[in-house]
Amino acid sequence: MKKDIHPQYNRCVITCISCGNEFEAGSTLKEIKVDTCSNCHPFYTGKQRFVQADGRVDRFNRKYGIDNEDK
Question: Which of 17, 23, 60, 63 has the fewest C-beta atoms lying within 10 Å of its C-beta?
Answer without folding.
Answer: 63
